[in-house]
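Hi, here's the filled form for the chain we discussed.

Project: internal
Contact: R.S.
Residues: 273
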Amino acid sequence: MLKARKPTTAGQRHRVDTQVEYTTSKPEKSLTSAKRSKAGRNAHGHITTRHRGGGVKRRLRKVDFRRNKTIEGRVATLEYDPGRSATIALVFYRDGEKRYILAPDSLKVGDIVQAGSDAPIKLGNALPLKKIPVGQPIHNIELKPGRGGQIVRSAGTAATIQSKEDDSVIVKLPSGEVRLIKSICFATIGQVSNPDHKNRSIGKAGRKRLMGWRPAVRGVAQHPGSHPHGGGEGRSGIGMPSPKSPWGKKTLGKRTRAVRKYSDKLIITRRKK
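And the returned structure, exactly as it came back:
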């Protein structure tokens, strides 16, 4: 659910937040670890990702993407994770172990979740793709058996099983791509929580700084020695047929995917542009 703020200040005027019901504000300490801020720099101190730095301190949550625990577990809490857009759920298992999982939409405290080939087709359960019926929304999908879910993990996303073949399953991804995935790979039933995340509005630049993002300067506003779009008299355009990156590489439409990639033979239909 979305909530628009009253325009009491300039920053609040355009702010729209998502209203998510979290059941606790404190994470499970044993399932968190420290996250050191790199500010977009590599081990040599060189900037490899621009416009990053600062932000509020945050701790990493250890989320179970493998879902390799076959006994039943009960959802204890629904929590905020500063490292992702979706809600996470703390699950208490019968043997006393605690794990975080990605919370599907409509999951509630007290629900029972399970993983394994014999698990029922129920919201939050993880099963091999061959056991999931056609047309069922799924998320947290493995690409290699036993490696853990790698795709369809962000807020509000869901993939759909279209058909099944010998040892593969045809899955349509949120991007529109249709591809083959091995039928023994695991996936979780349901759509990822917090579907309104894409409709929120940050509202002001200060909130973006708290999220660890620094200002981005337009290329046309820079010196020609700093950016290919720079220079010119007054407010001039980029001065070239197509835009380029600060290092002279073509952007906005230039294909960056490798010419020969191992997954080419698995993709039936390319994603939407």
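Let me know if anything looks off before we file it.
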